[in-house]
């Protein structure tokens, strides 16, 4: 445990970690409150709740060409700072749109805010990769997972409490304040120029369409040339389907099956229970990741999460449903810590943004398509059972795929690295 938190001795990492925390808060609370707002106002139209989630994932398909290029060619610190400031301004516009009450305008602002957010994570992750040592990557991935679990614990609860007490307006104000704090923390970081600008100084004028397309193509060639990385990214595409399903199936299960009258309160309790599971799992995953191969950790997490998710739809009571989701929460960090700690180890720091520039849109494309299918087919064609089987089945399919290909490619990658080091050693 002491080793896990030793990375906070690095002042830059501490600020980046806190900036990620507050920026994440600014995203989660308002959208959670808005989900409740939509379900309250349009009770018989669950399509609005699904569209709300689509407005989070869909923007990636419009900015994916720029995300990775910006993170690799522009000042990474400024990208993250500007992302926070712009989202703070858009949150105020979001608030005004709520007062006007025009749903298309509200969704459009959510779309814009989500589009700007997509630039934050690749830039922030690339800076984290640059300021930490390789053996600290898995630790950082574990801490990121703990952040996610804290938002499962408190994000939904804070969003719900804000909605109940001061309304949707109060939740959006919290969003705005969170983005401002994140921007100030990022501005206070002293990141070396080699990390902020790994490919030299560039201006917006330099980012011509030809350069953008060239960098995007280089990212594709880099991924296709690394079979281990390509295999991991294939799994991430399926994770997009899982994320799309998970973003709505839990609240649908509560509202339309297990807790029709008290789904808001139950969703907060579920968030707390699931978050506690993820928090505990994050601690164990960070410890286990130091002792076993990362692909074994990921495969175990995928199998357990997939199996239990598929089984949870048959829960006869809300207590059993909560218990099963707690177990899913325990094993979910095994996946995220393994993959989050592995990818920085196998990606060249100069290519990290361009790799993320492919990974994020592929994941979000799958997520958006899934949400679109759910919006059209649920509940008239596909029932809640089908959604849970889809999510659980996808997780188990990825586990089987990883079990087949990752051991072989991991061994090849390790062998190639060893040969490369031998070649680089000066002859006596």
TrEMBL record:
InterPro entries: MFS, MFS_trans_sf. It is a multi-pass membrane protein. It is found in: Cell membrane. This is MFS transporter. PANTHER family: MACROLIDE-EFFLUX PROTEIN. The lineage of its organism: Bacteria, Bacillati, Bacillota, Bacilli, Bacillales. Its main location: membrane. Keywords: Cell membrane, Membrane, Transmembrane, Transmembrane helix, Transport. Pfam families: MFS_1 (PF07690). It comes from Chengkuizengella axinellae. The keyword Transcription does not apply. The chain crosses the membrane at residues 21-39, 54-73, 85-112, 161-186, 228-254, 266-287, 294-313, 319-342, 362-381, 387-406. It comes from the Bacteria.
